[in-house]
Amino acid sequence: MNEENRIELLKLLETNNYRELKNNLIKYNEVDIAEFLQEIDKLEALAIFRLLPEAIAIETFSYLESDVQEQFISAMTSYETVELVDKLYIDDMVDLLEEMPNSIVNKIMRNLKGEKRNLINEYLNYPKDSAGSIMTSAFFSVNENRTIEDILKKMRKLDLLDETFYTLYITDNNNVLKGYVEIREMLINQPDTKISDILNENVVYVETTEDKEEVAKLIDKYEFLTIPVVDKEKKLVGVVTFDDAIQVLNEETEEDFSKMAAITPNENKYLDTSIFELSKMRFLWLLLLMMSSTLSQFVINSFNDVITALTGLVAFMPMLTDSAGNAGSQSSTTIIRGLSIGEIELSDTPKILAKEFMIALVVGFGLAAINFVRIILFGGVSTTMAFSVSLSLLITIIFSKLIGALLPVGATLLKWDPTIMAAPLLTTIVDSMSLFVYFTIAKLLLL
């Protein structure tokens, strides 16, 4: 929906032309409809929402922010609530209940049928970040003894055309997962063929307790549209779809960016979070970074005689520490990404260090040479000092890149989150190290 379309819809809203507004609105994707409803008055949004066709309304509801969903449900009758929520995919329903306050959860749960209520309770009992918490029970599986003809008849009868219907999962009489069949495989075989004769036994699956981020990585790695979820007895209990995997990866990326910037991850939107909450998230990290700078202060105090004798050194300190920090961050970010998506393993550490060392040599010599010429032309200092600064730059670049590569590996080895360590620890170590190298070389060459 572009801006022109949005303005047209708002004009219809201003004139209370709800019928025309509804007719125009249903032409758009449910994501666009949800965005439009979220930017207008909530009472008007609810009125428009009630006018939408059932299928569109259900899909639109799943894309609304949790606070808007809560407002809608609070204003609905119990009958309306059940009619809406009962038709959501089970994973969307669980997501909704996890975000709602107890009063809303109770309103929904007490009006659901026993079978659906038991299923939801089962999902809610899975660990929050597990495969079980994001899987859906809306999938199609068949017994291995069925023929293609039987299966196709059942498919037509059930009108299976939803997000999970790309792969057919095959089970035995005890619902144990035996394999899978792509839909196109059924279409090119004879109707009387038993499905067990064409199933692929090399099925990739996950258990209900598997971390949801690992599940998302598997879907991304193998380019699956769905991945089956089994219990400890390998009985098929659900599937995770690619759209849920994308959502997980997006959430993890946002969380990692926050941690790398030394900010406590926040589940709420920036504009919806209070100043106090944002301040609280940032204060502790900034305090730790400020306290960690004591190490740099100690290094500077240790070389006070050098600084007093060579006051010109101070002018190049920011350039040196900034360059070292940037070099370390480049390596750290690259390695964290590689570890997070499985491109790099802990066993690759020697290769990582060797590669980063060679990169550091190339980058370091290039920067040092350019820096030497720059200082000679514009620095107004001696050739010896220019050489001293440039040599310090080369050495700090090498150390920074090696440290930046080692920190994520070390954190992963210790079962820590490397994104948390990246910014604060790298800054502390690299700043102190670069100043120590700088003043040591200056003392040796210039005094």
From TrEMBL:
Residues 135-198, 199-255 form the CBS domain. The keyword Secreted does not apply. It comes from Helcococcus ovis. SUPFAM superfamilies: CBS-domain pair, MgtE membrane domain-like, MgtE N-terminal domain-like. Keywords: CBS domain, Cell membrane, Magnesium, Membrane, Metal-binding, Transmembrane, Transmembrane helix, Transport. Belongs to the SLC41A transporter family. Homodimer. GO terms for cellular component: plasma membrane. It comes from the Bacteria. It is a multi-pass membrane protein. The chain crosses the membrane at residues 357-377, 389-414, 420-446. It is found in: Cell membrane; Membrane. This is Magnesium transporter MgtE. CDD domains: CBS_pair_Mg_transporter. GO terms for molecular function: magnesium ion transmembrane transporter activity; metal ion binding. The keyword Coiled coil does not apply. Acts as a magnesium transporter.
